[in-house]
Amino acid sequence: MERKRAKTDEEAVELEGLDPNLIMSMERLQEAQDELDQANEAANEKVLEIEQTYMEKRRPIYERRNEVIQKIPQFWLTAFLSHPHLRDLLTDEDCKAFKFLKSLSVEDLGDIKSGYKITFEFGPNPYFEDSKLSKVFKYVEDASTAELGNAPHWKDGMDLTKSKKPETKEKKRPRKTNSFFNWFSDPVDADLIVGLMQDEIAEIIKEDLWVNPLTYFNNENGSDSDGDDDNDDDDEDICETDEEDDDDENEDDE
């Protein structure tokens, strides 16, 4: 146990005139609190050791789960759209790109105290060249801070973070959009992530979606419990299908 800190002159003056029994009780209370702090710190270290051990045991199970998920069409897109906090982050165009999402993984950096990396793996698609998009978050003083992510290398004319409509007639510069793919950039423009900070999105993915995506794929938490028909209609319109787009184009041609 650490040696007790000597009282300063100011503290000595403040203690003058106080009941000696009260002073002794306060000192004993401080000693007890110091011991509790040390015990809690030791307990936290043990918890981290146990978590590290089971993290390694869970890894092959996650890999096996991922193999099964890849056999289910649009699994991660469905899970995203059923999640109450993530569903609003995808634009209609994002949904089309997410149909090519094969797997999502969360990996701790060395140990669980350092941080983690979230990786999205895509199959060949008409939007970007990358097969993997990732973002790293490192813990600094008990808080997570975003590190450099790898923004997509967009194919010509397919950048979902840029509007296809020019900002003004004078400036032919494309406007930014609220695309989820802005999240992979560094730094992220706060205005482009609706309602959530980038580390909040990461925590939701890490602690909720990735832990049990089947819950959301089955729409257990994404559905409205009150059975409101209007809300059900809204759910169907979250992500337009390619067939709907084709119908719109045919109507325009007519």
UniProtKB/TrEMBL annotation:
<dbReference type="InterPro" id="IPR037231">
    <property type="entry name" value="NAP-like_sf"/>
</dbReference>
<dbReference type="GO" id="GO:0000724">
    <property type="term" value="P:double-strand break repair via homologous recombination"/>
</dbReference>
<keyword id="KW-0175">Coiled coil</keyword>
<protein>
    <submittedName>
        <fullName>Uncharacterized protein</fullName>
    </submittedName>
</protein>
<feature type="region of interest" description="Disordered">
    <location>
        <begin position="150"/>
        <end position="174"/>
    </location>
</feature>
<feature type="compositionally biased region" description="Acidic residues">
    <location>
        <begin position="223"/>
        <end position="254"/>
    </location>
</feature>
<dbReference type="InterPro" id="IPR002164">
    <property type="entry name" value="NAP_family"/>
</dbReference>
<dbReference type="GO" id="GO:0006334">
    <property type="term" value="P:nucleosome assembly"/>
</dbReference>
<comment type="similarity">
    <text>Belongs to the nucleosome assembly protein (NAP) family.</text>
</comment>
<dbReference type="GO" id="GO:0005634">
    <property type="term" value="C:nucleus"/>
</dbReference>
<dbReference type="GO" id="GO:0042393">
    <property type="term" value="F:histone binding"/>
</dbReference>
<feature type="compositionally biased region" description="Basic and acidic residues">
    <location>
        <begin position="153"/>
        <end position="170"/>
    </location>
</feature>
<keyword id="KW-0143">Chaperone</keyword>
<feature type="coiled-coil region">
    <location>
        <begin position="22"/>
        <end position="53"/>
    </location>
</feature>
<dbReference type="Pfam" id="PF00956">
    <property type="entry name" value="NAP"/>
</dbReference>
<feature type="region of interest" description="Disordered">
    <location>
        <begin position="216"/>
        <end position="254"/>
    </location>
</feature>
